[in-house]
Structures are given as C-alpha cells and as structure tokens.
Amino acid sequence: MRKAFICPTKYVQGENELLNLGYFVKTFGKKALLIADPFALTLVKDKLEETQKKYGVELIGCGDIFKGECSRNVVAKLQEFAKANKCSCTIGLGGGKAIDTSKCVAAGNPLIICPTIAATDAPTSHSAVLYTDDHEFDDYAYFRQSPSVVLIDLNVIANAPARFLVSGMGDALSTYFEARANVRSVSNVNAGLPCGANRKKGTLLGYGTHTAAALAELCYKNLISDGYKAKVACENNAITPAFEKIVETNILLSGLGFESGGLAGAHAMHDGLTVVHDIHLNNFHGEVVAFGTICQLVLENSPEEELYEVLDFCDTVGLPVCLEDLMTDKKTGKAERISLTEEELKAVAAKTCIPDESIHNMPFPVTEEMVIAAIKTADKLGRAYKGLDD
Ligand SMILES: [Zn+2]
User: Fold this and answer.
1) 135: CA distance to ligand 1 center in Å?
2) Burial of 117 (0-12, 13-18, 19+ CB in 10 A)
3) Is 360 a catalytic residue?
4) pTM summary value
5) How far is the CA of 167 from the centre of ligand 1 (A)?
6) Domain over 162-386 is classified CATH 1.20.1090.10
7) What is the pLDDT of residues 294-330, one digit of tens each?
8) Where are the domains of the chain?
C-alpha cells in the first residue's frame, strides 16, 4: 500500500520570533519578496526593520501588486517582480490570502510563511486556493513541497483578537475525527498527490500514515486539555504554556493532521453550509468547521460520551453548536433567524455531496438525505445542550 506524509522543512515558534526572520532569509540569499497583508504589516513594521539591519538582508515589498486577492494574474505579476528584483525567496506574512499568494508565487521554491493569526491550519500545507480577480473560486493549487520555514511570532498572535485563535481551534477540532474516518475508509490523502496535480487528474495517490493519525489524535487531546485556558490567555494578550500549546495545535498539529491524515465529513459540511449567505457572512472558516464536526459525529453515530465532549468543548470556548449560533451577527450578538428552510438544507446537502467532496471519505456511502438528517439533529442537540428550547 502506498502511503505518504508531507510537512514543512522547519517550524519555529517563539516570543518575538519575527526578529529572527532575517536569519532564515539569509540562508537563501540577500533579498526576499515580501507579500504581506497591509494591516498585519503595520503591526510588525519595526520588527521587520530590525531583523533586516541585524542580518544584512533586504525585504522587498510588492507595493500595490498584491491587493488582498490570490489570483493567477496577481501571482504572475509578482513572479515577474521577484525575478526583476533578484529575490532568492518569498515571504508570506498575514492571514490566509497573503499566505496563499506567497505559496503560489514561490511555486515550490524557498518560502517563509509568517502567520499573524492562528485562525486556520493552512500555513504548513503545500496547497493554496486560487480565486479570480472578481473574487470567485478558481482552483486548488498543489506545490512540489511544503513551505521551507513556518515562523510563528507568539507576541503577534497573542495580540490578535481571541476570536481568531478560537476559530483555529474549530478548524483543529475536526482534524482527529476526519483523519479517523480516512483510516476507517482507507481513503487517499492530499499528501500523496503529485506536484501540480489535483484529485481528478492525479494517478499517483497515497494513503495516510500512522504518524499522521497519531498527530491528529494529539491535536484533539490538546484542545480538550488546554483550549479554554489558551482562549483566556489570548483575551488578555498573555503568552502562557497553554496558549503556546494551542498555537502549535492549531497551526502545526492540525496542519500536518489534515494534509497527511485526510479530510472527511466536517470540511464537506463546511463547504455545504457556506452556500447559505448568512452563514458565509457571519463566520470564520473554523467556526463553520466546528459545527460541521458535530454534524459528522451525528452522521457516523459517534458515542454519546464523545459527542458531548465535543459539544462541551465548543460551548466552553465559544464555538457554534447550532444553526442559530452560525447565523448570529458577531457584532450585535443577535440572529435574524434560527433555522434553515428546506430549500436551503437541500442546497447545503447537494454541495456537501458533490463527487469531489471529502464527505465521500467517510467509511460508508453518504446521501443528501443523510446530510440533512445529520444537520437537523446536530442543531437540535446543540440547542438542547445550550437550553435554548426550554
Ligand atoms: Zn480547514
């Protein structure tokens, strides 16, 4: 049986770690192309200046070529710009879009990823999502290797709103259950894909390793033991051992777990649920994935003890446990409605079950009716848990 595992060459996490960015740039050359989220850049400007001076390197900003969207057009322009400026590596600094753009620009060559929030597990992966210039989904891109360095500055993450960290816990929450489903169904995982190919075209595939399954399990254990403590630390901009553990869990363990352990029901439910405008609008990725995880547990008839451990975790850290939570405006704390129409549920289930979706990595055939039943039941269980229907 062909098995595959993929990971970044180096992962470094520490206090004020951005001050060492120049050291890593220097291992590739003197100049690096810096693709940064403009807001994130204002937060770390001083550290970047200091590290350039200390290590004698130059970080070349890309002006207004990167405006916040990761499109083929922007990527091509940035690659030309990097070549003209003789950059020997690429840096992606910020949230999802800057990171994805930097992966596409580097295209498997030296790349340093500096996430400024711990909201998803994307930084460690060898894939990115491309959009059109009009912000529509275009395609997934896979590169021949994962980032050379993933560099985490704990102070930057601790000073970001705690909702990002909690959302990252939602993304990490699904990792163990989805990897477990892939083990049970003996499904192929992303780590096995050849460079540049996608599932449709790829002929070389690979199954998950024992290593990935063990990492995914540790990912879940850490969330249960330290998730709440980490949230409280982050709310107080404090770096504690629990906070450090959860940053590593959200970014490294969850990243390795999903890429080499596989996705299944929870992420497919996320993709389905976000066709509903109110859900797409009011939530971060990990928040929807958390509810998707509860739906997967219902779908696979997970034991009550496990289901309630997950509900308890979500409720404690502030992740959604029902549709009302997902439709709540996070600023006002109010939801205009508490459920989905039958038409919406059908649209959600149809998207969840398209042939390419990871729902088909579950260890049994899944129909649209089963998805609707799981969402309805998960919603009721979540409402009952919170005492909303009393
Ligand atoms: Zn995810």
Assistant:
1) 19
2) buried
3) no
4) 0.95
5) 10
6) yes
7) 999 999 999 999 999 999 999 999 999 999 999 999 8
8) 10-158, 162-386
